[in-house]
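Predict both folds.
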Amino acid sequence: MDLSGLKWPVLILVIVGIGFLASSPGINFMVGRYTKATPGQDAELDTRDEAGLTRIGGYLLYQWRYQRAYDIMKLAVDRYGASGANCWYNKYRMAKCLEKLGRIQESCALLEELMAANAHAVDARVADNNNLKLRVTKIKEVNDLQ
């Protein structure tokens, strides 16, 4: 059976599918998929959904879509709280989003919350307290805050 004629339509469908998932409607579709279940019902599903929201937020952060990335990471933090595996990492990246959005006070407050909780001890992806303190100091110095 010769399947060479099927190669190009399948390739085109794959490219169109990836394009859809990378677009705003595709992202909305994935967020809806990851928020469909009620948190607390199934631990395995909660882990998968929180990781999915974290990946989507990271993708948006990579695209410089800071407000949408912040909203999705905040959704993950609100849904799964401190018990979520990515909670502190999401908060760390939320601080970057807030800084890029010009919400400097909120960014500094979030970084100080991470320092107070010693988030690096819980999640190694979060910078250690010395780096967080340096970042807060630089942000305040550049923006003339107290």
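Second protein follows, with its predicted structure tokens after the sequence.
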Amino acid sequence: MKEKLMEINSLKGVWGYFLCNNMGKILGREMPIVFMKHLAMMGKEVTQVIGLLENLSSSPGNLEFLFEDGRVMVMSVKNFSLVVFCDPNVDISILRSKMNVITSEIQGNSKMQELVQKGEWRRKRLLQKEYLDQEYREILNQLVPEDISSSTPS
């Protein structure tokens, strides 16, 4: 599976990727050194954003963040997320196609499924108070105050 994941980096304009489970744990990565010290935090942040969107009854599936000097593509499925960092002018259709193939192969690979399901949690669990940073609690309180009281322990 690592070979398939590394195919992402072979695409022109792709800088790196990581794969994380629903706890934000990094399961695989190929990233430039500049991102490495923040990688664990990025896995948790991506998982919390997806959990927040799920809490709003939205199915995030694919997320895309476009910046002046870069682009972040997130493909989220039931048990994991694939995150790709790339040039803002990368060929989106080729990248999405490759990400779709890889996520499908991960879902169909029993060894990878064991890996992503080891810590089977719902992403929404990371929205509970003991896991959530203050900024996210404030966002949740503003967006869905009735859901906070039921999903966040006192």
